[in-house]
Amino acid sequence: MANGNLFDAAARCLACSDPREKFALTRAAASALADGRLCTDGASPPEPIGPPGRPERPRLVAPRQLAQRGLGTPEGRAALVHAVAHIEFNAINLAWDAVYRFRDMPGDYYRDWVRVADDEARHFSMLSTRLAELGHAYGDFDAHDGLWDMATRTADSCLARMALVPRVLEARGLDVTPGMIERLRGAGDESTVAILDVILSEEVAHVAAGSRWFEWCCARAGCDPEATFRDLIEAHMRGGLRGPFNVDARLRAGFTPGELDRLAELAA
Known about the structure:
Blueprint: E1 4-5, H1 6-15, H2 19-34, E2 38-39, H3 74-101, H4 107-133, H5 146-153, H6 158-170, H7 172-186, H8 190-221, H9 225-236, H10 247-252, H11 257-267
Parallel strand pairs: 1-2
């Protein structure tokens, strides 16, 4: 990628609907930023948030409409891999939108979220390869769109975005992935387990980036992080939290004991 503007590169990655091309654009943009070939000056203002680029399939349905499949068959394991792949595909778009939408942040903020986008693209590629090994492809199963819905609701506030996307929705992966790994190991699917082990390890750092920039935004706004996080959770997620929580992983990802206590109260 030639010298250019980071926000323009983010817009191209967001708009791209072909998963393979989105992967390639993301890797190229991450490399260009690391090499100093992308700047944050002179870009046009962000457009109002709309649907990101994505393929025609999978069909998006309400979460309650998703079929429940056991892991005792290759089809059931493929459905689980597909669900995680869909989360990772959304996470690519979420990371790029965090770069594209919020223009008044320090350089380290953009470097963090471009790295996250690059990691998520790699995760999606690993899961797509595993899907192919199981005889399927991304788009073969239905999926839901809850992650992007929250991106739309937090489009006007980086503080709210950092609180509610990485620290709530994406942090849910820290809670549920160990159980998925255990179930897949019980089903003898060590190939998928190896991928989820990588994803779980790296997602701690992604959630930690959300924690770091949430605290930065709170400091800029002059508000208390714990109280602000509690207020945002109660405003946007009341009745939508589920435990139990992976306390060790969440502490490593920047949650405070007070925040975890409040999450446990709300989930109960």
